[in-house]
Amino acid sequence: MNGSESTIYDIAAEAGVSITTVSRVLRNSGCVSAATRKKVEAAIARYNYHPSVIAQGMTSKKTYTLGMILPKLLNPNYAMIFTGANDEARRNGHLISLFPWSSISDEQPALSVANRRLDGLIVCVEYLSPDRNERLQITLKELRQYMPIVLIGCVPSYYDYPTITYPMAEIMRQAVSYLVGLGHEKIAFIGGTEADQDEQRRDVGYMEGLKEAQLPCIASYRAFCDGTAAAGEAALEGMLSSLLPSYWPTAVIALNDLVAMGCMAAARKRGLRLPEDLSVLGCDNLFCAPYLSPALTSVNTRQQELGAEAVKLLLSGEEKRVDAGWEFVIRDSCARFGQQ
Amino acid sequence: MNGSESTIYDIAAEAGVSITTVSRVLRNSGCVSAATRKKVEAAIARYNYHPSVIAQGMTSKKTYTLGMILPKLLNPNYAMIFTGANDEARRNGHLISLFPWSSISDEQPALSVANRRLDGLIVCVEYLSPDRNERLQITLKELRQYMPIVLIGCVPSYYDYPTITYPMAEIMRQAVSYLVGLGHEKIAFIGGTEADQDEQRRDVGYMEGLKEAQLPCIASYRAFCDGTAAAGEAALEGMLSSLLPSYWPTAVIALNDLVAMGCMAAARKRGLRLPEDLSVLGCDNLFCAPYLSPALTSVNTRQQELGAEAVKLLLSGEEKRVDAGWEFVIRDSCARFGQQ
DNA sequence: CTGAAAGCGCTTACAG
DNA sequence: CTGAAAGCGCTTACAG
After folding, report:
1. Which nucleotides of D are covered by protein (CB under 7 A)?
2. Contact (CB<8Å) B146/A116
3. How many CB atoms lie within 10 A of CB B264?
4. Domain that holds residue B262
5. Which residues of A are less than 8 Å from B289 in CB distance?
6. From CA A278, how far away is CA A260, in angstroms rounded?
7. Count: domains in chain A
8. Does residue A314 fall inside a structural domain?
9. Is residue A330 part of a domain?
């Protein structure tokens, strides 16, 4: 039978009971005699009936759908986060709908999200430039009136939302330390936003690492880009062309693997050998990292877990800020400097 | 004011009109006097009111959400399709929820999808092994009772659904022809499923291309894998180790870029030079293709357009089957054979 | 254990 | 131009 047309009334009629009773066997709540339950179940099966979660939502005030806002899904980093979140959500009977970043930077941000009556919202925050930061805070405050919110990313601690975060400054500090251990002294850094508002931001850790190694922090070794491969390529190319070759960095820490890929391309075009002349360190450990030449050393930020954790946190209603795990994945793109 | 709590009743009360009138100004339908409209709009603004699309859906029988089923989002190919679809859906006021492939291969496939009362479903079909094909047909037939369905992919023509498809056999035929033009005679093929049910399947085109060039079709040059880089690596490695080096293929056509990446890794491990000793041709033109060494020649299947087209088709209700565009993207991974 | 009734927040004929 | 009423498909007190 055509399941799309049957309602709880059809089932009740078919089974010869009230809709209340049907509802009870559906939700396995209240007491229903074994005989009645059987009749109802038979009717449900016969009609191939599926209760409408829309109608259920009308009374329960729940939509069983979560929203997620991501900078962009085309960076596999976010696809991983989304996948982890989506899987976890399904396990809990929820769906996730993806909203574009623009829906949070719009004039009327809440409109498109709020009228969906989401059960919750996960916002993945990156590249917090000052104006972006300001806008985001306003929007989040508005959206918070409608639904619980969980943040993913390195957000400033004055953001008062449950958050899954990772210690990006610490990771960068250790990255510098790792490269110093390989004999590098001219270590460049390509970040996402120059004036990121976060005390946990990457370049803070980068500078800390430099300081620990008693290395100078040189402005021309720092560059910023929008996180794409093309931007990474342009950023490193710009750096190289502004420097005499003897000052060229021997290692570069990239914002993410895309930028790292771009850096490799720029280096190659300049005739640099990888990794002998330039070590490159990425972040996110994308699927293609092991297949680049040389295989890219990167940071596994366990994105799928991150996404799953965010959903758990959102559904739990807890207010905590949790630190996600991470690890370096050493491959071939960072070499001891001076060794041929 | 807290928008999450206001309903059409609050607005009506605030504006001193009936909810019918509020509904009318909301939907811009019927005639409302300018004065009344103004009062209502003021009340809406004051309460920061957003009508519930859930409640609207109760009467309109629409949820304004579409479902999408993908093999896996972690292959950027699908992320591109999803992104194109999601953007197009939003432009039309719809949301897309992603369902895992398992929800269609489950015992109770319809259950999880049907009770969501989706306005439509897009299913991205790949790697149709015989049992998968059979299962899929049953599931689609069931789901079709509940909602319109659009397919993306190379599905057999006996699938009677609106479909966005691409001429994969033709693409592969031209790929062979391209490699033959470069002087290759030993051309391997790594596909997705040996017994794919589609007359449009890739290996059909591969064999056609071989025939056109009057080249023999050698079984040991055909392999199949599940579409991951690791599987591609294993597939080519298996092929090489089963063949005397003098019989090794000089070119390989891979199912997709992931498999191509795996092939490159396998070749490198065997000491083959790329592309001099082995040309590799991928498919999907992933973002990383230009950054591999050598930069991977691939096929741009315009995935975002594909996704957008699927949404348009679904929303239009048309029954047609449309052929998507595509193009080769020539880079450096395919070289003239014999030329050093 | 079972059912009649009210209610969730809207829209849509139907009257006026 | 405006409003009272019924209905969308459920759930949940409240009675029995």
Report:
1. 1-5, 7-13
2. no
3. 29
4. 168-300
5. none
6. 11
7. 3
8. yes
9. no
